[in-house]
Records
---
Amino acid sequence: MSDLFENALNSIKLGIDDYQSNDDRRPVSAIRNFYAGVLLLGKECLVRAAPDADPMDIIASHYRPVPDENGGLIHEPKGYSTIDLNEMRNRFKSFGIDWPEGDIKSLQKLRNDFEHFHSVAPTEKIRQAIAGCFPLVEGFFRNLEEDPAVALGEAWEVMLAEEAFFNRQKQECNSSFEKLPWGDSLSNTNEIACSNCGSTLIYQQDKGNSDPASIRGKCLACGEAITAEATVKLIVDAEHGVDDYISVKDGAEQIIHDCPECCEPTYVSGGDVNFCYFCDFSVEGECARCMCGLTVENQSVNNPNLCDYCDHMAEKIMRE
Ligand SMILES: [Zn+2]
Ligand SMILES: [Zn+2]
Ligand SMILES: [Zn+2]
Protein backbone atom coordinates (compact mmCIF):
# COMPACT_ATOMS: atom_id res chain seq x y z
CA MET A 1 0.00 0.00 0.00
CA SER A 2 1.38 3.43 -0.92
CA ASP A 3 2.12 5.95 1.83
CA LEU A 4 -0.32 8.35 0.24
CA PHE A 5 -3.15 5.83 0.23
CA GLU A 6 -2.40 4.79 3.78
CA ASN A 7 -2.36 8.41 4.93
CA ALA A 8 -5.67 8.99 3.16
CA LEU A 9 -7.29 6.06 4.95
CA ASN A 10 -5.84 7.06 8.32
CA SER A 11 -7.03 10.65 8.00
CA ILE A 12 -10.55 9.60 7.08
CA LYS A 13 -10.65 7.10 9.96
CA LEU A 14 -9.35 9.72 12.40
CA GLY A 15 -11.91 12.22 11.16
CA ILE A 16 -14.74 9.75 11.70
CA ASP A 17 -13.37 8.87 15.16
CA ASP A 18 -13.31 12.54 16.08
CA TYR A 19 -16.80 12.99 14.72
CA GLN A 20 -18.12 10.21 16.92
CA SER A 21 -16.47 11.44 20.10
CA ASN A 22 -18.37 13.73 22.46
CA ASP A 23 -15.43 16.02 23.15
CA ASP A 24 -16.25 19.64 22.27
CA ARG A 25 -12.99 20.28 20.47
CA ARG A 26 -13.15 17.17 18.36
CA PRO A 27 -15.55 18.41 15.64
CA VAL A 28 -12.90 20.85 14.41
CA SER A 29 -10.40 18.08 14.18
CA ALA A 30 -13.04 15.80 12.60
CA ILE A 31 -13.54 18.22 9.73
CA ARG A 32 -9.84 18.86 9.29
CA ASN A 33 -8.91 15.17 9.24
CA PHE A 34 -11.80 14.06 7.10
CA TYR A 35 -11.21 16.79 4.54
CA ALA A 36 -7.47 16.04 4.40
CA GLY A 37 -8.26 12.35 3.93
CA VAL A 38 -10.67 12.97 1.05
CA LEU A 39 -8.09 15.18 -0.68
CA LEU A 40 -5.37 12.55 -0.23
CA LEU A 41 -7.68 9.93 -1.70
CA GLY A 42 -8.14 12.11 -4.78
CA LYS A 43 -4.38 12.58 -5.07
CA GLU A 44 -3.92 8.81 -4.93
CA CYS A 45 -6.21 8.55 -7.99
CA LEU A 46 -3.86 10.89 -9.89
CA VAL A 47 -0.72 9.10 -8.73
CA ARG A 48 -2.04 5.72 -9.83
CA ALA A 49 -2.88 7.11 -13.25
CA ALA A 50 0.85 7.68 -13.88
CA PRO A 51 2.45 4.86 -11.89
CA ASP A 52 6.01 5.39 -13.15
CA ALA A 53 6.16 9.08 -12.29
CA ASP A 54 7.41 10.54 -9.02
CA PRO A 55 4.22 11.26 -6.98
CA MET A 56 5.49 14.73 -6.09
CA ASP A 57 5.75 15.51 -9.81
CA ILE A 58 2.07 14.72 -10.09
CA ILE A 59 0.55 16.48 -7.12
CA ALA A 60 2.78 19.54 -6.75
CA SER A 61 0.97 22.83 -6.91
CA HIS A 62 3.74 24.87 -8.56
CA TYR A 63 6.35 23.96 -11.15
CA ARG A 64 9.31 25.76 -12.59
CA PRO A 65 10.86 25.12 -15.97
CA VAL A 66 14.46 23.91 -15.94
CA PRO A 67 16.64 22.86 -18.91
CA ASP A 68 17.23 19.13 -19.21
CA GLU A 69 20.56 17.60 -20.28
CA ASN A 70 19.54 17.26 -23.91
CA GLY A 71 18.85 20.89 -24.66
CA GLY A 72 15.17 20.53 -23.89
CA LEU A 73 13.04 21.60 -20.98
CA ILE A 74 11.37 19.86 -18.06
CA HIS A 75 9.12 21.14 -15.32
CA GLU A 76 10.04 20.27 -11.78
CA PRO A 77 8.05 20.88 -8.60
CA LYS A 78 8.67 24.22 -7.01
CA GLY A 79 8.36 24.22 -3.23
CA TYR A 80 6.46 21.61 -1.28
CA SER A 81 2.89 22.77 -1.57
CA THR A 82 0.56 20.29 -3.22
CA ILE A 83 -2.62 20.84 -5.17
CA ASP A 84 -5.76 22.07 -3.45
CA LEU A 85 -9.28 21.02 -4.25
CA ASN A 86 -9.73 23.20 -7.34
CA GLU A 87 -6.34 22.34 -8.77
CA MET A 88 -7.04 18.67 -8.18
CA ARG A 89 -10.28 18.92 -10.09
CA ASN A 90 -8.46 20.49 -13.04
CA ARG A 91 -5.77 17.87 -12.90
CA PHE A 92 -8.38 15.11 -13.00
CA LYS A 93 -9.58 16.70 -16.21
CA SER A 94 -6.16 16.83 -17.84
CA PHE A 95 -5.51 13.24 -16.73
CA GLY A 96 -8.78 12.19 -18.34
CA ILE A 97 -10.19 10.90 -15.04
CA ASP A 98 -13.89 11.45 -14.33
CA TRP A 99 -14.54 13.69 -11.34
CA PRO A 100 -17.09 11.89 -9.18
CA GLU A 101 -20.33 13.52 -8.13
CA GLY A 102 -20.63 14.72 -4.59
CA ASP A 103 -20.46 17.91 -2.66
CA ILE A 104 -17.04 18.58 -1.20
CA LYS A 105 -17.66 22.33 -1.32
CA SER A 106 -19.63 22.45 1.92
CA LEU A 107 -16.93 20.42 3.64
CA GLN A 108 -14.30 22.78 2.27
CA LYS A 109 -16.33 25.77 3.42
CA LEU A 110 -16.85 24.29 6.85
CA ARG A 111 -13.14 23.61 7.13
CA ASN A 112 -12.22 27.16 6.10
CA ASP A 113 -14.77 28.62 8.51
CA PHE A 114 -13.18 26.63 11.30
CA GLU A 115 -9.67 27.67 10.42
CA HIS A 116 -10.62 31.32 10.55
CA PHE A 117 -13.20 31.56 13.30
CA HIS A 118 -12.68 28.45 15.41
CA SER A 119 -16.41 28.25 15.43
CA VAL A 120 -18.28 25.52 17.18
CA ALA A 121 -19.88 23.31 14.59
CA PRO A 122 -23.23 21.80 15.20
CA THR A 123 -23.19 18.08 14.64
CA GLU A 124 -25.86 18.46 11.99
CA LYS A 125 -23.56 20.54 9.84
CA ILE A 126 -20.74 18.06 10.08
CA ARG A 127 -23.13 15.23 9.35
CA GLN A 128 -24.35 17.01 6.25
CA ALA A 129 -20.79 17.70 5.12
CA ILE A 130 -19.83 14.06 5.57
CA ALA A 131 -22.99 12.84 3.87
CA GLY A 132 -22.45 15.33 1.04
CA CYS A 133 -18.93 13.97 0.43
CA PHE A 134 -20.11 10.42 0.41
CA PRO A 135 -20.56 10.02 -3.38
CA LEU A 136 -17.18 11.66 -3.91
CA VAL A 137 -15.39 9.26 -1.58
CA GLU A 138 -17.26 6.37 -3.20
CA GLY A 139 -16.21 7.64 -6.64
CA PHE A 140 -12.55 7.88 -5.65
CA PHE A 141 -12.62 4.32 -4.34
CA ARG A 142 -14.25 3.13 -7.55
CA ASN A 143 -11.52 4.83 -9.53
CA LEU A 144 -8.88 3.19 -7.33
CA GLU A 145 -10.63 -0.17 -7.67
CA GLU A 146 -10.47 -0.55 -3.93
CA ASP A 147 -13.26 -1.68 -1.63
CA PRO A 148 -14.06 1.11 0.85
CA ALA A 149 -15.61 -1.36 3.29
CA VAL A 150 -12.33 -3.28 3.44
CA ALA A 151 -10.07 -0.21 3.34
CA LEU A 152 -11.95 1.88 5.90
CA GLY A 153 -13.55 -0.83 8.01
CA GLU A 154 -15.73 0.58 10.75
CA ALA A 155 -15.32 4.18 9.55
CA TRP A 156 -17.07 3.22 6.32
CA GLU A 157 -20.01 1.77 8.24
CA VAL A 158 -20.30 5.02 10.17
CA MET A 159 -20.27 6.97 6.91
CA LEU A 160 -22.97 4.74 5.44
CA ALA A 161 -25.10 5.21 8.54
CA GLU A 162 -24.60 8.99 8.55
CA GLU A 163 -25.52 9.24 4.91
CA ALA A 164 -28.65 7.18 5.44
CA PHE A 165 -29.55 9.29 8.48
CA PHE A 166 -29.01 12.50 6.57
CA ASN A 167 -31.13 11.29 3.66
CA ARG A 168 -33.95 10.46 6.05
CA GLN A 169 -33.75 13.94 7.56
CA LYS A 170 -33.78 15.51 4.11
CA GLN A 171 -36.77 13.38 3.17
CA GLU A 172 -38.65 14.60 6.24
CA CYS A 173 -37.79 18.22 5.47
CA ASN A 174 -39.07 17.81 1.93
CA SER A 175 -42.28 16.14 3.03
CA SER A 176 -43.07 19.03 5.40
CA PHE A 177 -43.85 21.10 2.27
CA GLU A 178 -46.18 18.54 0.71
CA LYS A 179 -49.45 20.25 1.65
CA LEU A 180 -48.45 23.53 -0.02
CA PRO A 181 -49.95 24.30 -3.45
CA TRP A 182 -46.65 23.58 -5.21
CA GLY A 183 -45.46 21.05 -2.64
CA ASP A 184 -45.44 17.98 -4.84
CA SER A 185 -43.74 19.67 -7.80
CA LEU A 186 -40.45 20.40 -5.98
CA SER A 187 -37.50 18.69 -7.63
CA ASN A 188 -34.44 20.74 -6.73
CA THR A 189 -34.58 20.89 -2.96
CA ASN A 190 -30.94 19.80 -2.75
CA GLU A 191 -30.13 23.30 -3.97
CA ILE A 192 -31.78 24.96 -0.98
CA ALA A 193 -29.18 26.73 1.14
CA CYS A 194 -29.86 28.15 4.62
CA SER A 195 -28.69 31.75 4.55
CA ASN A 196 -27.14 31.28 7.97
CA CYS A 197 -25.28 27.97 7.61
CA GLY A 198 -25.72 26.75 4.03
CA SER A 199 -27.54 23.55 5.00
CA THR A 200 -30.20 22.12 2.69
CA LEU A 201 -32.23 20.91 5.67
CA ILE A 202 -34.98 23.54 5.56
CA TYR A 203 -38.50 22.57 6.59
CA GLN A 204 -41.76 24.10 7.74
CA GLN A 205 -42.68 23.51 11.35
CA ASP A 206 -46.37 22.94 10.74
CA LYS A 207 -46.51 20.05 8.31
CA GLY A 208 -50.25 20.49 7.87
CA ASN A 209 -50.02 24.10 6.70
CA SER A 210 -51.07 24.62 3.10
CA ASP A 211 -50.77 28.43 2.91
CA PRO A 212 -47.37 29.75 1.82
CA ALA A 213 -47.92 33.03 3.70
CA SER A 214 -48.29 31.08 6.96
CA ILE A 215 -45.12 29.04 6.63
CA ARG A 216 -42.95 29.00 9.74
CA GLY A 217 -39.67 27.89 8.27
CA LYS A 218 -36.71 26.53 10.17
CA CYS A 219 -33.25 25.17 9.50
CA LEU A 220 -32.75 21.74 11.01
CA ALA A 221 -28.97 22.15 11.01
CA CYS A 222 -28.51 25.50 12.78
CA GLY A 223 -31.96 26.09 14.27
CA GLU A 224 -32.45 29.42 12.51
CA ALA A 225 -36.11 30.45 12.24
CA ILE A 226 -37.03 31.59 8.73
CA THR A 227 -39.96 33.83 7.78
CA ALA A 228 -42.61 32.67 5.32
CA GLU A 229 -41.32 35.12 2.70
CA ALA A 230 -37.71 34.00 3.08
CA THR A 231 -38.63 30.31 3.07
CA VAL A 232 -40.60 30.66 -0.16
CA LYS A 233 -37.75 32.63 -1.69
CA LEU A 234 -35.23 29.91 -0.72
CA ILE A 235 -37.46 27.37 -2.46
CA VAL A 236 -37.99 29.50 -5.58
CA ASP A 237 -34.26 30.13 -5.87
CA ALA A 238 -33.52 26.44 -5.45
CA GLU A 239 -36.12 25.39 -8.01
CA HIS A 240 -35.58 28.11 -10.61
CA GLY A 241 -32.42 30.02 -9.72
CA VAL A 242 -30.18 28.17 -12.13
CA ASP A 243 -32.61 28.55 -15.07
CA ASP A 244 -33.01 32.21 -14.21
CA TYR A 245 -29.25 32.72 -14.18
CA ILE A 246 -28.74 30.92 -17.51
CA SER A 247 -31.62 32.74 -19.15
CA VAL A 248 -30.33 36.17 -18.16
CA LYS A 249 -26.78 35.23 -19.11
CA ASP A 250 -28.01 34.24 -22.57
CA GLY A 251 -29.64 37.64 -22.94
CA ALA A 252 -33.18 36.29 -22.53
CA GLU A 253 -35.88 37.32 -20.05
CA GLN A 254 -35.40 36.54 -16.41
CA ILE A 255 -37.58 33.77 -15.03
CA ILE A 256 -37.95 34.91 -11.42
CA HIS A 257 -39.81 38.21 -11.10
CA ASP A 258 -41.12 40.50 -8.41
CA CYS A 259 -44.78 39.58 -8.06
CA PRO A 260 -47.16 42.32 -9.31
CA GLU A 261 -49.61 41.35 -6.57
CA CYS A 262 -47.55 40.75 -3.37
CA CYS A 263 -44.25 42.32 -4.48
CA GLU A 264 -42.23 39.31 -3.27
CA PRO A 265 -39.46 38.13 -5.64
CA THR A 266 -41.26 34.81 -5.99
CA TYR A 267 -43.17 35.09 -9.26
CA VAL A 268 -41.93 32.47 -11.70
CA SER A 269 -42.65 32.72 -15.40
CA GLY A 270 -40.96 30.23 -17.65
CA GLY A 271 -41.59 26.80 -19.14
CA ASP A 272 -45.03 25.74 -17.93
CA VAL A 273 -44.80 27.68 -14.69
CA ASN A 274 -46.62 31.00 -14.45
CA PHE A 275 -47.56 32.01 -10.92
CA CYS A 276 -46.33 33.45 -7.65
CA TYR A 277 -45.12 30.85 -5.15
CA PHE A 278 -45.96 33.17 -2.27
CA CYS A 279 -49.46 34.50 -3.05
CA ASP A 280 -50.51 32.19 -5.91
CA PHE A 281 -51.30 35.19 -8.14
CA SER A 282 -51.08 34.55 -11.86
CA VAL A 283 -51.03 37.10 -14.68
CA GLU A 284 -53.68 36.05 -17.19
CA GLY A 285 -55.91 37.40 -19.93
CA GLU A 286 -55.38 39.69 -22.89
CA CYS A 287 -54.46 43.32 -23.32
CA ALA A 288 -57.72 45.28 -23.67
CA ARG A 289 -56.29 47.32 -26.52
CA CYS A 290 -54.15 45.03 -28.71
CA MET A 291 -55.44 41.63 -27.48
CA CYS A 292 -51.95 40.26 -26.99
CA GLY A 293 -51.61 37.71 -24.18
CA LEU A 294 -50.59 39.37 -20.91
CA THR A 295 -47.56 38.05 -19.05
CA VAL A 296 -45.64 39.19 -16.00
CA GLU A 297 -43.05 40.59 -18.42
CA ASN A 298 -45.37 42.71 -20.57
CA GLN A 299 -48.21 43.65 -18.22
CA SER A 300 -48.29 47.36 -17.48
CA VAL A 301 -47.62 48.26 -13.86
CA ASN A 302 -49.93 51.26 -14.22
CA ASN A 303 -52.84 49.43 -15.77
CA PRO A 304 -53.13 45.67 -15.32
CA ASN A 305 -55.59 45.48 -18.27
CA LEU A 306 -53.03 46.73 -20.76
CA CYS A 307 -49.67 45.65 -22.01
CA ASP A 308 -46.73 47.99 -21.50
CA TYR A 309 -46.79 49.15 -25.09
CA CYS A 310 -50.51 49.96 -25.16
CA ASP A 311 -50.37 51.68 -21.79
CA HIS A 312 -47.58 53.81 -23.16
CA MET A 313 -49.55 54.57 -26.33
CA ALA A 314 -52.76 55.33 -24.41
CA GLU A 315 -50.91 57.80 -22.25
CA LYS A 316 -49.38 59.45 -25.26
CA ILE A 317 -52.78 59.91 -26.90
CA MET A 318 -54.18 61.39 -23.70
CA ARG A 319 -51.39 63.92 -23.56
CA GLU A 320 -51.79 65.01 -27.18
ZN1 LIG B 1 -28.95 26.81 8.91
ZN1 LIG C 1 -47.19 37.18 -5.18
ZN1 LIG D 1 -51.51 45.85 -25.84
Note: The beta strands are 63-67, 73-77, 202-204, 217-219, 225-226, 256-257, 267-270, 273-276.
---
Amino acid sequence: MLRFFGMSIGWMAGMFLFTGCTPEEFSPFDGARAFSETEALVQISPRDAGTANGRIAAIHLETRLKALGYKTVIDTFLEKTPAGELFFSNVLGRLPGKTDRLIILASHFDTKAGISDDFQGANDSGSSSGVLLELARVLAQRAPYETEFLVAFFDGEECATKYGPTDGLHGSRHLAQKIATGGGADKVEAMILLDMVGDKDLNITTPRNCTQELVLELFSAAKSIGVRPKFSLAKGSILDDHVPFLLAGMPAIDVIDFEYGSEPGLNDYWHTTNDTMDKISVESLQIVGDVVFRMVENLQ
Ligand SMILES: [Zn+2]
Protein backbone atom coordinates (compact mmCIF):
# COMPACT_ATOMS: atom_id res chain seq x y z
CA MET A 1 0.00 0.00 0.00
CA LEU A 2 2.82 2.30 0.97
CA ARG A 3 4.77 1.35 -2.14
CA PHE A 4 1.72 1.84 -4.28
CA PHE A 5 1.25 5.26 -2.73
CA GLY A 6 4.88 6.16 -3.53
CA MET A 7 4.46 5.05 -7.13
CA SER A 8 1.32 7.10 -7.40
CA ILE A 9 3.10 10.21 -6.32
CA GLY A 10 5.94 9.51 -8.77
CA TRP A 11 3.49 8.89 -11.57
CA MET A 12 1.64 12.10 -10.77
CA ALA A 13 4.89 14.09 -10.68
CA GLY A 14 5.80 12.61 -14.05
CA MET A 15 2.47 13.63 -15.49
CA PHE A 16 3.03 17.15 -14.24
CA LEU A 17 6.49 17.27 -15.81
CA PHE A 18 5.33 16.01 -19.17
CA THR A 19 1.89 17.49 -19.57
CA GLY A 20 1.52 20.14 -16.91
CA CYS A 21 2.78 23.65 -17.05
CA THR A 22 2.62 26.48 -14.59
CA PRO A 23 0.78 29.67 -15.60
CA GLU A 24 4.19 31.40 -15.82
CA GLU A 25 5.37 28.86 -18.41
CA PHE A 26 2.14 29.14 -20.34
CA SER A 27 2.35 32.93 -20.41
CA PRO A 28 4.32 35.34 -18.26
CA PHE A 29 1.56 37.93 -18.66
CA ASP A 30 -0.26 38.53 -15.38
CA GLY A 31 -3.86 39.74 -15.74
CA ALA A 32 -4.00 40.73 -12.06
CA ARG A 33 -1.03 43.06 -12.55
CA ALA A 34 -2.68 44.53 -15.65
CA PHE A 35 -5.82 45.12 -13.56
CA SER A 36 -3.78 46.91 -10.86
CA GLU A 37 -2.10 49.09 -13.47
CA THR A 38 -5.53 49.94 -14.88
CA GLU A 39 -6.79 50.80 -11.39
CA ALA A 40 -3.81 53.08 -10.75
CA LEU A 41 -4.35 55.01 -13.99
CA VAL A 42 -8.11 55.24 -13.41
CA GLN A 43 -7.36 56.97 -10.08
CA ILE A 44 -6.41 59.89 -12.33
CA SER A 45 -9.83 60.66 -13.77
CA PRO A 46 -11.02 62.19 -15.92
CA ARG A 47 -7.75 62.59 -17.85
CA ASP A 48 -8.83 64.67 -20.81
CA ALA A 49 -6.25 65.93 -23.28
CA GLY A 50 -4.85 69.35 -22.48
CA THR A 51 -5.88 69.28 -18.80
CA ALA A 52 -3.73 69.11 -15.66
CA ASN A 53 -4.99 65.56 -15.03
CA GLY A 54 -4.03 64.58 -18.57
CA ARG A 55 -0.48 65.72 -17.85
CA ILE A 56 -0.45 63.92 -14.49
CA ALA A 57 -1.57 60.72 -16.24
CA ALA A 58 1.24 61.10 -18.80
CA ILE A 59 3.84 61.53 -16.05
CA HIS A 60 2.41 58.52 -14.20
CA LEU A 61 2.72 56.31 -17.31
CA GLU A 62 6.25 57.53 -18.01
CA THR A 63 7.26 56.78 -14.40
CA ARG A 64 5.89 53.23 -14.71
CA LEU A 65 7.72 52.62 -18.01
CA LYS A 66 10.96 53.97 -16.55
CA ALA A 67 10.62 51.65 -13.56
CA LEU A 68 10.35 48.75 -16.04
CA GLY A 69 13.68 49.70 -17.59
CA TYR A 70 12.47 51.55 -20.68
CA LYS A 71 14.15 54.56 -22.28
CA THR A 72 11.31 57.04 -22.11
CA VAL A 73 10.25 60.40 -23.39
CA ILE A 74 7.10 62.49 -23.11
CA ASP A 75 6.64 64.00 -26.55
CA THR A 76 4.63 67.19 -26.01
CA PHE A 77 3.22 69.06 -28.98
CA LEU A 78 0.70 71.80 -29.70
CA GLU A 79 -2.18 71.26 -32.12
CA LYS A 80 -5.34 73.00 -33.22
CA THR A 81 -8.63 71.58 -31.94
CA PRO A 82 -12.23 72.80 -32.14
CA ALA A 83 -11.67 74.11 -28.58
CA GLY A 84 -8.58 76.11 -29.60
CA GLU A 85 -4.93 75.08 -29.45
CA LEU A 86 -4.09 72.36 -26.93
CA PHE A 87 -0.93 70.71 -25.69
CA PHE A 88 -0.85 66.92 -26.11
CA SER A 89 1.60 64.52 -24.44
CA ASN A 90 2.50 61.18 -26.03
CA VAL A 91 4.32 58.85 -23.65
CA LEU A 92 6.90 56.69 -25.43
CA GLY A 93 9.16 53.92 -24.20
CA ARG A 94 11.81 52.04 -26.18
CA LEU A 95 13.11 48.54 -25.68
CA PRO A 96 16.12 47.95 -27.97
CA GLY A 97 16.19 44.85 -30.18
CA LYS A 98 18.88 42.86 -32.01
CA THR A 99 17.82 44.39 -35.36
CA ASP A 100 16.33 47.72 -36.44
CA ARG A 101 12.95 46.14 -37.20
CA LEU A 102 10.29 47.66 -34.99
CA ILE A 103 7.02 46.60 -33.36
CA ILE A 104 4.85 49.39 -32.00
CA LEU A 105 2.49 48.49 -29.15
CA ALA A 106 -0.03 51.22 -28.43
CA SER A 107 -3.01 52.43 -26.44
CA HIS A 108 -4.53 55.84 -25.89
CA PHE A 109 -4.75 57.09 -22.30
CA ASP A 110 -6.95 60.19 -22.54
CA THR A 111 -10.62 60.20 -21.61
CA LYS A 112 -13.47 61.59 -23.69
CA ALA A 113 -13.94 65.22 -22.64
CA GLY A 114 -17.16 66.79 -21.45
CA ILE A 115 -18.93 63.70 -20.09
CA SER A 116 -18.78 64.29 -16.35
CA ASP A 117 -16.31 65.02 -13.56
CA ASP A 118 -17.11 61.45 -12.42
CA PHE A 119 -16.14 59.88 -15.73
CA GLN A 120 -13.44 57.25 -15.14
CA GLY A 121 -12.86 55.62 -18.50
CA ALA A 122 -11.99 52.28 -16.87
CA ASN A 123 -12.36 50.33 -20.12
CA ASP A 124 -11.81 53.29 -22.47
CA SER A 125 -8.82 53.98 -21.97
CA GLY A 126 -7.79 52.36 -18.67
CA SER A 127 -7.92 48.68 -19.69
CA SER A 128 -5.71 48.93 -22.77
CA SER A 129 -3.20 51.10 -20.89
CA GLY A 130 -3.04 48.53 -18.06
CA VAL A 131 -2.51 45.64 -20.49
CA LEU A 132 0.16 47.64 -22.31
CA LEU A 133 2.11 48.30 -19.10
CA GLU A 134 1.99 44.61 -18.18
CA LEU A 135 3.09 43.64 -21.70
CA ALA A 136 5.92 46.15 -21.35
CA ARG A 137 6.98 44.40 -18.14
CA VAL A 138 7.06 40.88 -19.58
CA LEU A 139 8.83 41.98 -22.77
CA ALA A 140 11.52 43.83 -20.80
CA GLN A 141 12.13 40.67 -18.75
CA ARG A 142 12.73 38.63 -21.91
CA ALA A 143 14.63 41.23 -23.96
CA PRO A 144 16.50 41.47 -26.21
CA TYR A 145 14.14 40.31 -28.94
CA GLU A 146 14.94 40.39 -32.65
CA THR A 147 12.69 43.44 -33.00
CA GLU A 148 12.87 46.66 -31.10
CA PHE A 149 9.67 47.57 -29.23
CA LEU A 150 8.17 51.02 -29.05
CA VAL A 151 5.49 51.23 -26.37
CA ALA A 152 3.28 54.24 -27.11
CA PHE A 153 0.57 55.81 -24.98
CA PHE A 154 -1.32 58.28 -27.15
CA ASP A 155 -2.91 61.47 -25.93
CA GLY A 156 -5.90 63.04 -27.70
CA GLU A 157 -7.46 59.95 -29.29
CA GLU A 158 -10.91 61.17 -28.35
CA CYS A 159 -12.46 63.87 -30.50
CA ALA A 160 -14.04 67.02 -29.05
CA THR A 161 -16.89 67.20 -31.57
CA LYS A 162 -16.27 65.17 -34.75
CA TYR A 163 -13.24 63.23 -36.00
CA GLY A 164 -11.27 65.19 -38.58
CA PRO A 165 -7.77 66.50 -39.38
CA THR A 166 -7.83 68.75 -36.29
CA ASP A 167 -10.08 66.70 -34.01
CA GLY A 168 -9.23 63.32 -32.45
CA LEU A 169 -6.33 60.87 -33.12
CA HIS A 170 -3.87 63.67 -32.26
CA GLY A 171 -1.24 61.49 -30.62
CA SER A 172 -1.28 58.68 -33.18
CA ARG A 173 -1.24 61.08 -36.15
CA HIS A 174 1.70 62.90 -34.59
CA LEU A 175 3.75 59.71 -34.04
CA ALA A 176 2.90 58.15 -37.41
CA GLN A 177 3.97 61.35 -39.21
CA LYS A 178 7.14 61.55 -37.17
CA ILE A 179 8.12 57.96 -38.04
CA ALA A 180 7.19 58.41 -41.72
CA THR A 181 9.06 61.71 -42.18
CA GLY A 182 12.09 60.21 -40.42
CA GLY A 183 12.14 57.40 -42.99
CA GLY A 184 11.29 54.71 -40.45
CA ALA A 185 7.98 53.42 -41.84
CA ASP A 186 9.67 50.56 -43.73
CA LYS A 187 11.19 49.23 -40.52
CA VAL A 188 7.82 48.82 -38.82
CA GLU A 189 6.89 45.15 -38.69
CA ALA A 190 3.57 45.80 -36.93
CA MET A 191 1.64 48.48 -35.13
CA ILE A 192 -0.63 46.74 -32.64
CA LEU A 193 -3.26 48.96 -31.07
CA LEU A 194 -5.23 47.94 -27.99
CA ASP A 195 -8.49 49.73 -27.17
CA MET A 196 -11.40 48.76 -24.87
CA VAL A 197 -10.04 45.33 -23.97
CA GLY A 198 -11.34 44.87 -20.42
CA ASP A 199 -15.08 44.16 -20.79
CA LYS A 200 -16.15 41.19 -18.63
CA ASP A 201 -18.09 39.97 -21.66
CA LEU A 202 -15.04 39.98 -23.94
CA ASN A 203 -15.58 39.79 -27.71
CA ILE A 204 -12.71 41.21 -29.69
CA THR A 205 -14.02 42.24 -33.10
CA THR A 206 -11.13 43.33 -35.26
CA PRO A 207 -12.26 45.99 -37.73
CA ARG A 208 -11.98 45.46 -41.50
CA ASN A 209 -9.48 48.28 -41.90
CA CYS A 210 -6.53 46.33 -40.50
CA THR A 211 -3.57 44.69 -42.23
CA GLN A 212 -4.76 41.20 -43.16
CA GLU A 213 -1.52 39.42 -42.25
CA LEU A 214 -1.72 40.84 -38.74
CA VAL A 215 -5.35 39.76 -38.36
CA LEU A 216 -4.27 36.21 -39.28
CA GLU A 217 -1.41 36.42 -36.77
CA LEU A 218 -3.84 37.57 -34.07
CA PHE A 219 -6.34 34.77 -34.77
CA SER A 220 -3.58 32.17 -34.96
CA ALA A 221 -2.16 33.31 -31.60
CA ALA A 222 -5.67 33.16 -30.09
CA LYS A 223 -6.20 29.67 -31.50
CA SER A 224 -2.91 28.37 -30.16
CA ILE A 225 -3.91 29.20 -26.60
CA GLY A 226 -7.53 28.11 -26.90
CA VAL A 227 -9.34 31.46 -26.91
CA ARG A 228 -10.12 31.77 -30.62
CA PRO A 229 -13.92 32.06 -30.01
CA LYS A 230 -13.28 35.40 -28.27
CA PHE A 231 -11.83 36.87 -31.47
CA SER A 232 -13.64 37.65 -34.71
CA LEU A 233 -13.72 40.05 -37.62
CA ALA A 234 -16.07 43.03 -37.37
CA LYS A 235 -18.57 43.79 -40.12
CA GLY A 236 -17.14 47.25 -40.75
CA SER A 237 -14.23 49.62 -40.26
CA ILE A 238 -13.35 51.64 -37.16
CA LEU A 239 -11.59 54.99 -37.07
CA ASP A 240 -9.03 54.56 -34.32
CA ASP A 241 -5.36 55.23 -33.56
CA HIS A 242 -4.19 52.53 -36.00
CA VAL A 243 -5.51 54.47 -39.00
CA PRO A 244 -2.73 57.14 -39.21
CA PHE A 245 -0.20 54.27 -39.33
CA LEU A 246 -2.10 52.46 -42.10
CA LEU A 247 -2.29 55.71 -44.07
CA ALA A 248 1.48 56.17 -43.66
CA GLY A 249 2.06 52.69 -45.12
CA MET A 250 2.73 50.76 -41.92
CA PRO A 251 1.09 47.38 -41.13
CA ALA A 252 -1.41 47.99 -38.33
CA ILE A 253 -4.16 46.24 -36.38
CA ASP A 254 -6.79 47.38 -33.87
CA VAL A 255 -7.51 44.88 -31.07
CA ILE A 256 -10.84 46.24 -29.83
CA ASP A 257 -14.11 45.09 -28.28
CA PHE A 258 -16.43 47.82 -29.44
CA GLU A 259 -19.55 46.49 -27.72
CA TYR A 260 -19.60 47.60 -24.13
CA GLY A 261 -22.96 47.57 -22.44
CA SER A 262 -25.47 46.00 -20.09
CA GLU A 263 -26.88 43.71 -22.79
CA PRO A 264 -25.60 42.27 -26.07
CA GLY A 265 -26.07 44.86 -28.80
CA LEU A 266 -26.09 47.74 -26.36
CA ASN A 267 -23.14 50.10 -25.91
CA ASP A 268 -24.54 51.92 -22.88
CA TYR A 269 -21.37 51.80 -20.76
CA TRP A 270 -19.30 53.44 -23.47
CA HIS A 271 -18.52 57.14 -22.90
CA THR A 272 -20.74 57.24 -19.81
CA THR A 273 -20.15 57.33 -16.05
CA ASN A 274 -20.95 53.58 -16.13
CA ASP A 275 -17.47 52.91 -17.53
CA THR A 276 -16.12 51.87 -14.13
CA MET A 277 -13.71 49.22 -12.80
CA ASP A 278 -16.52 46.80 -11.86
CA LYS A 279 -17.33 46.36 -15.58
CA ILE A 280 -13.91 44.99 -16.43
CA SER A 281 -12.25 41.74 -15.38
CA VAL A 282 -8.82 40.28 -14.73
CA GLU A 283 -9.79 37.37 -17.02
CA SER A 284 -10.44 39.60 -20.04
CA LEU A 285 -7.19 41.49 -19.54
CA GLN A 286 -5.42 38.13 -19.19
CA ILE A 287 -6.84 36.80 -22.46
CA VAL A 288 -5.87 39.89 -24.45
CA GLY A 289 -2.43 40.04 -22.83
CA ASP A 290 -1.73 36.35 -23.48
CA VAL A 291 -2.78 36.60 -27.12
CA VAL A 292 -0.84 39.77 -27.90
CA PHE A 293 2.23 38.41 -26.10
CA ARG A 294 2.03 35.21 -28.16
CA MET A 295 1.50 37.25 -31.33
CA VAL A 296 4.57 39.45 -30.83
CA GLU A 297 6.71 36.41 -30.00
CA ASN A 298 5.50 34.77 -33.22
CA LEU A 299 6.43 37.93 -35.14
CA GLN A 300 10.10 37.61 -34.13
ZN1 LIG B 1 -13.47 56.56 -26.28
Note: The pocket of zinc ion is lined by residues 112, 124, 158, 271 (CB under 6 Å).
